[in-house]
């Protein structure tokens, strides 16, 4: 393929990358200083808020230009313009879902100061678009050119990360909704202990699977977050700890940044194109959170809706190398008619998706309010503006307060879920009232001295918050580790973020050993002897988690069949479902299933020898899927500690094949509120999105070793420890 760029790893050093940033003629009011550390983490010092926003726009574009363009094409359903007819199915889904539908209303209602902030950010982005000296390599491959950004584009990106994770379950189950095993699984999932883990889902089949994979690359579907009170802290001040669970794709969806201006002084994790810190701290408070798994959507059965109540629009889709295609999207007062999508149309019926994200809400103003807050009361007031995606937000103050609250906009539905995913039209009355953060339960200064969240079920509420939540594996492990130590310090928190223990693995281990010994065969006995000594840690260099996982897979296959096992892997708590099956299945059938599972498990152990030989972590660049050239965009592949239910999440579906984790703890953060400078971050990958840059994957080594990059808040410390300084001029 002549003329196609083939990247040379580490061929562009940091000085060369920084020299590309345009430094003069910017839309600034006064000069701005930007300090860079060795990992290309910036700290911006600006005399005005306007100038800070401009500089942030330049920095985001410099670091993640190609990634930003891909995100813009995804949110607007324009992938076919990049990848040709292979993107048509996804574009059809994306255009039907219409993620940026509310953007015009959001833009019209923005407060003046938020509008000015975003416009200055966009001005910085567009200056970089015009003046950066070279295009990213991905532009040549995808046929992209320099294109300006708008305020509406930035607002649209906030909706890309805001989709409802319940959609993933619906996409898996709705095609088979008329089949009794599928409807029974739905009812089973709605029980009191209903849980699901989208990270267990394989990338699936067909367009729905590709949509699933694409959305997961941009959304915070999982995370761990905890905060510790001064009474439990070795430093005598509160601590904040966060790690976010995302697809391990390069560039990382997060970038690390710090800055200071008259109204802003903070450091943390930002999403490219979103001009606010989502996870981090300022001098007075620190914050983080996890996905609430809020049910911000409902499916309405509109089979009886008259045709006159349905509107249509024609979408024109540019297809690379093939001109233009058109598609018709039907809409209703209950939302877009998603039963028109090919994957769902086969089973008949007509139903619409109502999503809170189709209504205007002002997340950027809310995030800026959180970033500037100085105490719990002002922070909590800002949470009311966060509509989608619903979040569990954790708080730690320099004054010693710790707290957790839900931030979401939800319809006022009855607290108990219905037994069918399809609701009658009259149930839409719940959408006439919107609940906000102030209407939902919160926890402030609990007696145990810590609060934590791991996408687990929230406290009981008078209204339905969500259908499915993570199992209690991670939250119980986090709580147990925190409760066991009288004084928490950096070392403990750093070890916790790499913890690979699964509490329920031990009783399940004992049950499997019992079933193996009952076989009274040499192969089964050998597996039992190896499994018996397992301590419950998913360590990459051990055999026991390998035995455990392959046994569960083949037992599930024998008991439930391939189709149902695939559905099990499409919802959270796959292993919990199988544990229930083991306890409720007749002994004779269970004995037969184990007899079938043992030979397969034995072959898998002979093939892989260790868990890490089968369970891999590969931070793949978005271009790694290109035929022939994809191998040039792969930057590491190693045996991974952890699994779907460990604190250090490396999620995977049930399988006996060599596989790669679909979600991982892609960013970590720790802050000690005793000192403005005691803030640490690390990314799986690196800061830079530029192919060939020495800072594209340099933090991966730190991530694997449990090390961090310190990002102080004091400008004098920054000047001393960030060796590269540049000045941007009007």
Which tags fit this structure?
730 residues; 7-stranded antiparallel beta sheet; 30 strands; alpha+beta; 24 helices; 36% helix
Largest sheet: 10 strands, mixed
Tell me how many strands there are.
30
H/I helix tally: 24
How much of the sequence lies in strands comes to 15-25%
Quaternary structure type: single chain
Structural category is: alpha+beta
Mean pLDDT: 91
**Overall form:** globular
Task: Please report the distance between the alpha carbons of the first and last residues.
Answer: 43 Å
Strand order of the largest sheet: 20-16-15-9-8-7-6-2-1-30
Helix content: 25-40%
Low-confidence parts lasting 5 or more residues at pLDDT below 50? 192-205
Radius of gyration: 25 Å
What does this structure look like?
- With 730 residues, the protein is α+β, with helices and mostly antiparallel strands.
- It has a domain at 505-536 and 543-609.
- The chain is built from 24 helices and 30 strands.
- The longest helix is centred in the first third of the chain and has 27 residues, at 49-75.
- The two termini are 43 Å apart.
Q: Would you kindly provide a brief summary of this structure?
A:
The protein has 730 residues and is of the alpha+beta class.
Any chance you could write out the topology, listing elements then pairs?
Blueprint: H1 14-19, E1 32-36, E2 42-45, H2 49-75, H3 80-83, H4 88-97, H5 103-109, H6 112-131, H7 137-142, H8 151-160, H9 166-173, H10 180-189, H11 206-216, E3 222-228, E4 239-246, E5 249-250, E6 255-260, E7 265-270, E8 279-281, E9 285-291, E10 297-301, E11 311-319, E12 323-332, E13 335-336, H12 342-345, E14 351-355, H13 363-372, H14 376-383, E15 391-397, E16 402-407, E17 410-411, E18 422-423, E19 434-435, E20 442-444, E21 450-453, H15 473-484, H16 490-496, H17 505-517, H18 522-532, H19 544-568, H20 574-584, H21 587-608, H22 611-614, E22 615-617, E23 620-621, E24 638-639, E25 650-651, E26 659-660, E27 663-672, E28 679-683, H23 699-705, E29 709-710, H24 715-721, E30 724-728
Parallel strand pairs: 2-6, 5-23, 10-18, 22-26
Antiparallel strand pairs: 1-2, 1-30, 3-4, 3-21, 4-27, 6-7, 7-8, 8-9, 9-15, 10-14, 11-12, 12-13, 15-16, 16-20, 17-19, 22-24, 25-27, 27-28, 28-29
Helix pairs in contact: 2-6, 2-8, 4-11, 5-8, 13-14, 17-18, 18-19, 19-20, 19-21
